[in-house]
Amino acid sequence: xxxxxxxxKGISLRFVYLWLIVITIIVFGLSxxxxxxxxxxxFNMKDANSEHLxxxxxxxxxxxxxxFLTENVQRFTLNGNVTYMNNYFKEAFENNxxxxxxxxxxxDPKCNAAxxxxxxxxKASQKLMNQEYYAxxxxxxxxxxxxxxxxxxxxxxxxxxxxxxxxxxxxxxxSLVLNEDYYNQKEVIRKNMHESLDEIEKISMNYESTSxxxxxxxxxxxxxxxxxxxxxxxxxxxxxxxxxxxxVLEAVEKIKTDDPIPEIGANEFRYLAxxxxxxxxxxxxxxxxxxxxxSHDELTGAYNRSGxxxxxxxxxxxxxxxxxxxxxxxKSINDNFGHETGDLVLKKLVTTLKNNxxxxxYICRIGGDxxxxxxxxxxxxxxxxxxxxxxxxxxxxxxVKDGLPSISVSVGIxxxxxxxxxxxSIFEKADEAMYRSKRNGKHTYTFYAG
Length: 450
What we know:
By secondary structure, the chain is α+β, with helices and mostly antiparallel strands. 72% of the residues lie in helices and 6% in strands. It has three domains: 1-233, no CATH class; 235-295, no CATH class; 305-447, Alpha-Beta Plaits, CATH 3.30.70. The relative contact order is 0.07. Mean pLDDT is 80; it is low at 6-10 and 283-290.
């Protein structure tokens, strides 16, 4: 009966109007709520990313602190300069980067796995410190140093070590912090630190995925509410202007400045913008790869000749050692074992150089079997440290456990201050020193002496 009456009288416009008002208010309220939630979701994701960046930074600080301790104890055992010993203990007991890193991990329950790996690294580092204390105690005894920390004072030398001469104590101290066992312990510490960084990355990726999904859901809700509201209030022209024309104009300006297009506006434009941005990202990635290939050797990953020339003109040579490496009898390896083995030997050399020099130093392949290392921020007084590194490099290259033939390098070293006419002749001086090493029987190194 009511249906027949309704069909007869028709739907009341007032009724429709009132319902449109109610629907508009509801849609508008939902839209405002969704828009309100968007920045909250974004800022929550931003805060979480910042927190994970802090954790990542803390883990890297622990790794840098460990390397700093190693570098200073090695320098101290080589020349007995108390400055390096003081640097060591200042880092270990005043700066406390390692303890601070673990403290940051403790504040976040999600980081228990990452913290566990850092704790393992810390324990291994503390164990290694006992060996470093012993080495420093030998140096203190050999150099008759009277002012040294309590930790060194507490170390008791073995009766046989007490009988050693001063030179013998220095040699033993150097051996304790430069031998294979020491580096194996360092590798264990590095492994634990890298595993901690992997755990942090997993946490960050999981949270980022969840946050992006939440953000995407909020965007979908906003779009749906906008469409419904637009249909209800019949502002199609305004909607077209806001979601079509304006994004296009902004996209044109972004294209002019070679930037990605903002993914805003209508779904169709967002799809076009997203597609363009993907192509833009691929283009940028390809360009970066081309730039990398232009300055790096494809086989070994070291800088190539072009990269070397650029570094030579930009590095501060007044505080840099240029170290020239030449593989001994490399031609015979290619002749006897084949070029594939020769390529593996070249890769092994670059890997060995990276393991023995700092990440700040630059490794270049300038010829078939010639390599250059720019050891930056290094004074002329570091010859003993360089000599120790070169001896360790030759020992590693001689190791045939990896199935590659034994190999050695002849090395020439020159400091930037030895070249009075700038960088023009610095390579020639390093080359001259390297050929002296060749004439002295190879498998050795020579410092340029003028």
